[in-house]
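Q: Hi! First time doing this. I have a protein sequence and I read that you can turn it into a structure. Is that right? Here it is:
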Amino acid sequence: MKMKKIALGLLITGVVSTSALAYAATRPVDIVSKLTGKTVETLYQERAQGKTYGTIAKEAGKLEEFKNEMLKNKKEILDQKVKEGKLTQAQAEQILNSIKNNMANCDGTGSQRLGQKYGVGFGNGQGKGKGNGLGLGQGMRRGLGNGYNK
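A: Yes, that's right. Below is the predicted 3D structure, encoded as structure tokens:
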């Protein structure tokens, strides 16, 4: 009986760890790191100096790739929020369409603040929010932005 409990505990730990790793791979810092070859620590230092991840990607000639990856991640997050019942499909589609439209004008500065407009909090702030953000956390690990609470 004790072995079954240990095995179950290890299985649960493995699932939770895998989920955490999957989430970590969707952070903007990880995307920029993958695209530019810069370390996460270096990117955090550049963010602390006031650069956005978009600006860093743009300087490396990778802005379009960064935007595509961010769009893919935001769509996955919106789909998950629909599954969880935190957004309707119509709300998710409206947000995604706005994201696509804004990306046409994206210059990498992060000035669009789309998550704030719709109250879904993609975590683009500097970590000051405490809501249930949609998990893209650019808040340098200090917060999740203004979340959509339902």
